[in-house]
Write a structure and sequence with these properties.
Blueprint: E1 15-18, H1 24-31, E2 35-39, E3 50-52, H2 55-69, H3 75-86
Parallel strand pairs: 1-2, 2-3
Length: 87
């Protein structure tokens, strides 16, 4: 969690994926400013996390995200990214 306190982390969206009760503190922390994903059923977990059914669903999500990251940035988004870097 200390990693999210770093200055470079302020412009990032943290993602945490957990599947048991030991993950609840991290899920709670990340849910405040990022994406907290609960895998399966976790007793006493909040109902505010995103939920995936099982590990296969996690793998599918990660593959989809990786595929999207490999795609070129659309021209309009690229212009916005370039203009925000020079400001």
């Amino acid at each position: 969690m200390w990693l999210l306190q770093k200055s470079w982390a302020r412009s990032r969206v943290p993602v945490y994926i957990g599947d048991d009760t030991t993950d609840i503190p991290a899920l709670d922390f990340v849910a405040r400013s990022g994406i907290a994903v609960q895998v399966g059923s976790i007793p006493h977990a909040r109902k505010t996390y995103l939920r995936l059914k099982n590990r296969n669903a996690v793998e599918q999500l990660l593959r989809e995200l990786a595929n999207r990251l490999d795609q070129p940035i659309p021209v309009e988004r690229q212009r916005l990214a370039n203009s925000s870097c020079t400001a």
